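User: Sequence for Probable hydrogen peroxide-inducible genes activator below. C-alpha coordinates please.
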Amino acid sequence: MAASATPAGKPRQPSISQLRAFVAVAEQLHFRDAAAAIGMSQPALSGAVAALEEALGVQLLERTTRKVLLSPAGERLAARARTVLEAVGELLEEAEAARAPFTGVLRLGVIPTVAPYLLPTVLRLVHERYPRLDLQVYEEQTASLLDGLAHGRLDLLLLAVPLGAPGVVEMPLFDEDFVLVTPRDHWLGGRDDIPREALKELDLLLLDEGHCLRDQALDICREVGRTEGTPVTTSAAGLSTLVQLVAGGLGVTLLPRTALRVETARNDHLATGDFADPAPARRIALAMRAGAARTEEFEAFAEALREALRPLPVRVARG
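Assistant: C-alpha coordinates for Probable hydrogen peroxide-inducible genes activator:
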Protein backbone atom coordinates (compact mmCIF):
# COMPACT_ATOMS: atom_id res chain seq x y z
CA MET A 1 0.00 0.00 0.00
CA ALA A 2 1.34 3.41 -0.90
CA ALA A 3 1.98 5.71 2.02
CA SER A 4 -0.23 8.73 2.41
CA ALA A 5 1.62 11.60 4.00
CA THR A 6 1.19 15.17 5.04
CA PRO A 7 3.02 17.92 3.14
CA ALA A 8 5.86 17.55 5.63
CA GLY A 9 6.16 13.87 4.74
CA LYS A 10 4.80 12.56 8.05
CA PRO A 11 1.82 10.23 8.60
CA ARG A 12 -1.47 11.95 9.38
CA GLN A 13 -2.87 11.93 12.92
CA PRO A 14 -5.22 8.95 13.39
CA SER A 15 -8.59 9.47 15.00
CA ILE A 16 -9.82 7.73 18.15
CA SER A 17 -12.61 6.16 16.11
CA GLN A 18 -10.09 4.66 13.70
CA LEU A 19 -8.02 3.24 16.55
CA ARG A 20 -11.10 1.73 18.18
CA ALA A 21 -12.09 0.06 14.93
CA PHE A 22 -8.59 -1.35 14.37
CA VAL A 23 -8.27 -2.70 17.93
CA ALA A 24 -11.68 -4.35 17.65
CA VAL A 25 -10.64 -6.12 14.43
CA ALA A 26 -7.29 -7.08 15.99
CA GLU A 27 -9.12 -8.71 18.89
CA GLN A 28 -11.92 -10.40 16.90
CA LEU A 29 -10.07 -11.09 13.62
CA HIS A 30 -13.47 -10.80 11.99
CA PHE A 31 -15.07 -7.64 10.62
CA ARG A 32 -18.68 -8.52 11.45
CA ASP A 33 -17.86 -9.56 15.02
CA ALA A 34 -15.64 -6.51 15.53
CA ALA A 35 -18.37 -4.18 14.29
CA ALA A 36 -20.90 -5.74 16.68
CA ALA A 37 -18.44 -5.49 19.59
CA ILE A 38 -18.13 -1.71 19.33
CA GLY A 39 -21.61 -0.91 18.00
CA MET A 40 -20.49 0.21 14.55
CA SER A 41 -21.79 -0.86 11.16
CA GLN A 42 -19.51 -3.21 9.24
CA PRO A 43 -19.01 -0.81 6.31
CA ALA A 44 -18.14 2.02 8.70
CA LEU A 45 -15.67 -0.19 10.55
CA SER A 46 -14.01 -1.33 7.32
CA GLY A 47 -13.76 2.28 6.19
CA ALA A 48 -12.23 3.37 9.51
CA VAL A 49 -9.54 0.68 9.37
CA ALA A 50 -8.75 1.51 5.75
CA ALA A 51 -8.53 5.21 6.64
CA LEU A 52 -6.15 4.38 9.50
CA GLU A 53 -3.91 2.40 7.17
CA GLU A 54 -3.89 5.28 4.72
CA ALA A 55 -3.18 7.83 7.47
CA LEU A 56 -0.26 5.81 8.88
CA GLY A 57 1.05 4.63 5.51
CA VAL A 58 1.23 1.06 6.85
CA GLN A 59 -0.71 -2.09 5.99
CA LEU A 60 -2.20 -3.37 9.24
CA LEU A 61 -4.30 -6.31 8.06
CA GLU A 62 -4.02 -9.16 5.60
CA ARG A 63 -7.48 -9.75 4.17
CA THR A 64 -8.56 -13.01 2.55
CA THR A 65 -11.97 -14.30 1.55
CA ARG A 66 -12.17 -16.41 4.71
CA LYS A 67 -10.27 -14.65 7.47
CA VAL A 68 -8.48 -11.53 8.65
CA LEU A 69 -4.90 -11.63 9.86
CA LEU A 70 -2.69 -8.99 11.41
CA SER A 71 0.35 -8.01 9.41
CA PRO A 72 3.69 -7.88 11.27
CA ALA A 73 3.28 -4.11 11.52
CA GLY A 74 -0.32 -4.60 12.63
CA GLU A 75 0.82 -6.86 15.48
CA ARG A 76 3.11 -4.15 16.82
CA LEU A 77 0.75 -1.23 16.30
CA ALA A 78 -2.24 -3.04 17.82
CA ALA A 79 -0.48 -3.06 21.19
CA ARG A 80 0.29 0.66 20.83
CA ALA A 81 -3.30 1.41 19.85
CA ARG A 82 -4.62 -0.40 22.93
CA THR A 83 -2.32 1.70 25.13
CA VAL A 84 -3.57 4.90 23.50
CA LEU A 85 -7.22 3.93 23.98
CA GLU A 86 -6.60 3.02 27.63
CA ALA A 87 -4.96 6.40 28.20
CA VAL A 88 -7.89 8.18 26.54
CA GLY A 89 -10.26 6.25 28.77
CA GLU A 90 -8.33 7.32 31.85
CA LEU A 91 -8.40 10.93 30.63
CA LEU A 92 -12.18 10.79 30.25
CA GLU A 93 -12.55 9.27 33.73
CA GLU A 94 -10.39 12.05 35.18
CA ALA A 95 -12.48 14.67 33.38
CA GLU A 96 -15.65 13.11 34.77
CA ALA A 97 -14.19 13.28 38.27
CA ALA A 98 -13.21 16.91 37.70
CA ARG A 99 -16.77 17.77 36.67
CA ALA A 100 -18.15 16.23 39.87
CA PRO A 101 -17.76 18.61 42.83
CA PHE A 102 -15.85 17.55 45.94
CA THR A 103 -13.94 14.77 44.23
CA GLY A 104 -10.29 14.43 43.36
CA VAL A 105 -7.44 16.22 45.12
CA LEU A 106 -7.79 19.41 47.18
CA ARG A 107 -4.47 20.85 48.33
CA LEU A 108 -5.17 22.98 51.42
CA GLY A 109 -2.54 25.27 52.90
CA VAL A 110 -2.89 26.24 56.60
CA ILE A 111 -0.89 28.59 58.82
CA PRO A 112 0.67 27.08 61.99
CA THR A 113 -1.42 29.21 64.37
CA VAL A 114 -4.61 27.77 62.86
CA ALA A 115 -3.75 24.18 61.91
CA PRO A 116 -3.79 22.44 65.34
CA TYR A 117 -7.04 24.09 66.42
CA LEU A 118 -9.21 24.05 63.28
CA LEU A 119 -8.00 20.99 61.38
CA PRO A 120 -10.01 18.55 63.53
CA THR A 121 -13.18 20.37 62.43
CA VAL A 122 -12.05 20.55 58.79
CA LEU A 123 -11.09 16.88 58.65
CA ARG A 124 -14.34 15.76 60.27
CA LEU A 125 -16.34 17.84 57.77
CA VAL A 126 -14.49 16.33 54.82
CA HIS A 127 -14.82 12.79 56.18
CA GLU A 128 -18.53 13.07 56.85
CA ARG A 129 -19.73 15.22 53.96
CA TYR A 130 -17.14 14.84 51.20
CA PRO A 131 -15.82 11.26 51.40
CA ARG A 132 -14.62 11.29 47.77
CA LEU A 133 -12.46 14.37 48.32
CA ASP A 134 -8.74 13.67 48.62
CA LEU A 135 -7.71 16.41 51.08
CA GLN A 136 -3.98 17.10 51.29
CA VAL A 137 -2.85 19.52 54.01
CA TYR A 138 0.28 21.70 53.98
CA GLU A 139 1.23 23.70 57.08
CA GLU A 140 3.34 26.73 56.13
CA GLN A 141 3.70 30.40 56.96
CA THR A 142 1.62 32.96 55.10
CA ALA A 143 4.23 34.08 52.55
CA SER A 144 4.93 30.49 51.50
CA LEU A 145 1.22 29.72 51.25
CA LEU A 146 0.55 32.71 49.02
CA ASP A 147 3.42 31.72 46.78
CA GLY A 148 2.05 28.19 46.55
CA LEU A 149 -1.40 29.50 45.67
CA ALA A 150 -0.06 31.84 42.98
CA HIS A 151 1.99 29.10 41.31
CA GLY A 152 -0.70 26.41 41.46
CA ARG A 153 1.00 24.25 44.10
CA LEU A 154 -1.95 24.87 46.44
CA ASP A 155 -5.66 25.17 45.68
CA LEU A 156 -7.07 26.77 48.83
CA LEU A 157 -5.68 28.49 51.92
CA LEU A 158 -6.90 28.69 55.52
CA LEU A 159 -5.28 31.66 57.20
CA ALA A 160 -5.64 35.06 58.84
CA VAL A 161 -6.77 38.02 56.73
CA PRO A 162 -6.73 40.64 55.31
CA LEU A 163 -3.91 39.63 52.99
CA GLY A 164 -3.78 42.53 50.57
CA ALA A 165 -2.56 40.13 47.90
CA PRO A 166 -3.56 40.79 44.26
CA GLY A 167 -5.41 38.01 42.50
CA VAL A 168 -6.56 36.40 45.76
CA VAL A 169 -10.21 36.14 46.83
CA GLU A 170 -10.90 35.95 50.57
CA MET A 171 -13.93 34.08 51.94
CA PRO A 172 -14.27 35.07 55.63
CA LEU A 173 -15.09 32.25 58.05
CA PHE A 174 -15.06 33.83 61.51
CA ASP A 175 -13.62 36.42 63.88
CA GLU A 176 -12.06 35.43 67.19
CA ASP A 177 -10.80 37.44 70.15
CA PHE A 178 -7.28 37.41 71.51
CA VAL A 179 -6.84 36.37 75.13
CA LEU A 180 -4.03 37.47 77.42
CA VAL A 181 -2.08 34.53 78.86
CA THR A 182 -0.09 35.26 81.99
CA PRO A 183 1.77 33.46 84.77
CA ARG A 184 -0.63 32.17 87.44
CA ASP A 185 0.11 34.95 89.96
CA HIS A 186 0.10 37.83 87.47
CA TRP A 187 -2.03 40.81 88.43
CA LEU A 188 -4.02 40.64 85.17
CA GLY A 189 -4.74 36.92 85.39
CA GLY A 190 -8.43 36.08 85.70
CA ARG A 191 -9.72 39.52 84.79
CA ASP A 192 -12.43 40.02 82.16
CA ASP A 193 -12.03 43.76 81.65
CA ILE A 194 -8.39 44.22 80.69
CA PRO A 195 -7.92 47.48 78.80
CA ARG A 196 -5.89 47.31 75.62
CA GLU A 197 -3.65 49.99 77.02
CA ALA A 198 -2.27 47.45 79.49
CA LEU A 199 -0.18 46.08 76.63
CA LYS A 200 1.91 49.25 76.62
CA GLU A 201 4.24 48.17 79.41
CA LEU A 202 3.91 44.37 79.66
CA ASP A 203 6.80 41.99 79.02
CA LEU A 204 5.30 40.61 75.82
CA LEU A 205 6.40 37.29 74.32
CA LEU A 206 5.77 36.82 70.61
CA LEU A 207 6.39 34.30 67.85
CA ASP A 208 9.37 34.46 65.53
CA GLU A 209 9.52 36.58 62.40
CA GLY A 210 7.31 35.35 59.57
CA HIS A 211 4.28 34.37 61.65
CA CYS A 212 1.25 36.51 60.88
CA LEU A 213 0.18 36.23 64.54
CA ARG A 214 3.32 38.12 65.51
CA ASP A 215 2.47 40.89 63.06
CA GLN A 216 -1.11 41.07 64.34
CA ALA A 217 0.06 41.34 67.95
CA LEU A 218 2.51 44.09 67.05
CA ASP A 219 -0.25 45.96 65.21
CA ILE A 220 -2.39 45.81 68.35
CA CYS A 221 0.50 47.14 70.41
CA ARG A 222 1.05 50.03 68.02
CA GLU A 223 -2.66 50.86 68.14
CA VAL A 224 -2.54 51.30 71.93
CA GLY A 225 0.62 53.41 71.76
CA ARG A 226 3.26 50.92 72.78
CA THR A 227 6.57 52.62 72.04
CA GLU A 228 9.22 51.11 69.82
CA GLY A 229 11.64 51.11 72.74
CA THR A 230 9.50 48.83 74.90
CA PRO A 231 11.16 45.39 74.68
CA VAL A 232 9.39 42.50 73.00
CA THR A 233 10.93 39.11 73.67
CA THR A 234 10.88 36.91 70.57
CA SER A 235 12.12 33.40 71.16
CA ALA A 236 9.42 30.93 70.17
CA ALA A 237 8.69 29.17 66.88
CA GLY A 238 5.28 27.91 67.98
CA LEU A 239 2.45 28.70 70.37
CA SER A 240 3.16 25.69 72.61
CA THR A 241 6.69 26.93 73.30
CA LEU A 242 5.39 30.46 73.78
CA VAL A 243 2.95 29.29 76.44
CA GLN A 244 5.69 27.34 78.24
CA LEU A 245 7.79 30.52 78.41
CA VAL A 246 4.84 32.34 79.97
CA ALA A 247 4.40 29.52 82.51
CA GLY A 248 8.05 29.93 83.39
CA GLY A 249 7.49 33.55 84.32
CA LEU A 250 9.29 35.16 81.37
CA GLY A 251 6.38 37.37 80.35
CA VAL A 252 2.86 37.32 78.93
CA THR A 253 1.49 36.60 75.47
CA LEU A 254 -1.60 36.83 73.28
CA LEU A 255 -3.40 33.71 72.12
CA PRO A 256 -6.33 33.39 69.71
CA ARG A 257 -9.28 32.00 71.61
CA THR A 258 -9.47 28.83 69.49
CA ALA A 259 -5.97 27.90 70.75
CA LEU A 260 -6.73 28.46 74.40
CA ARG A 261 -8.07 25.03 75.40
CA VAL A 262 -5.33 23.10 73.62
CA GLU A 263 -2.44 25.24 74.85
CA THR A 264 -3.40 26.14 78.43
CA ALA A 265 -5.90 23.60 79.77
CA ARG A 266 -3.38 21.32 81.48
CA ASN A 267 -0.93 23.89 82.79
CA ASP A 268 -1.49 24.96 86.39
CA HIS A 269 1.11 27.68 86.12
CA LEU A 270 -0.95 29.81 83.77
CA ALA A 271 -3.82 32.26 84.05
CA THR A 272 -5.85 33.96 81.34
CA GLY A 273 -7.56 37.30 81.09
CA ASP A 274 -10.14 38.72 78.68
CA PHE A 275 -9.96 42.20 77.22
CA ALA A 276 -12.70 44.75 77.61
CA ASP A 277 -14.86 45.30 74.56
CA PRO A 278 -13.94 45.79 71.83
CA ALA A 279 -11.35 43.08 72.37
CA PRO A 280 -8.47 42.76 69.91
CA ALA A 281 -9.35 40.06 67.39
CA ARG A 282 -8.31 38.38 64.18
CA ARG A 283 -10.29 37.18 61.16
CA ILE A 284 -9.79 33.73 59.66
CA ALA A 285 -10.77 33.02 56.06
CA LEU A 286 -10.37 30.66 53.16
CA ALA A 287 -8.53 32.15 50.21
CA MET A 288 -8.45 31.08 46.56
CA ARG A 289 -7.12 32.39 43.27
CA ALA A 290 -9.39 34.87 41.52
CA GLY A 291 -11.16 33.08 38.69
CA ALA A 292 -10.34 29.61 40.04
CA ALA A 293 -12.00 26.84 38.06
CA ARG A 294 -13.46 25.40 41.26
CA THR A 295 -14.82 28.70 42.58
CA GLU A 296 -18.38 27.44 43.18
CA GLU A 297 -17.07 24.34 44.93
CA PHE A 298 -14.77 26.38 47.17
CA GLU A 299 -17.57 28.80 48.06
CA ALA A 300 -19.81 25.88 49.01
CA PHE A 301 -16.98 24.43 51.08
CA ALA A 302 -16.56 27.75 52.90
CA GLU A 303 -20.27 27.85 53.75
CA ALA A 304 -20.23 24.27 55.04
CA LEU A 305 -17.15 25.05 57.11
CA ARG A 306 -18.80 28.10 58.68
CA GLU A 307 -21.62 25.88 59.93
CA ALA A 308 -19.19 23.28 61.23
CA LEU A 309 -17.25 25.95 63.16
CA ARG A 310 -20.26 27.30 65.09
CA PRO A 311 -19.55 25.23 68.24
CA LEU A 312 -16.15 26.92 68.59
CA PRO A 313 -15.68 30.15 70.60
CA VAL A 314 -15.81 32.36 67.50
CA ARG A 315 -18.12 34.77 65.70
CA VAL A 316 -19.00 33.06 62.44
CA ALA A 317 -19.07 35.33 59.41
CA ARG A 318 -22.02 35.59 57.06
CA GLY A 319 -21.55 33.97 53.66
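Residues 109 and 144 are 9 Å apart (CA to CA).
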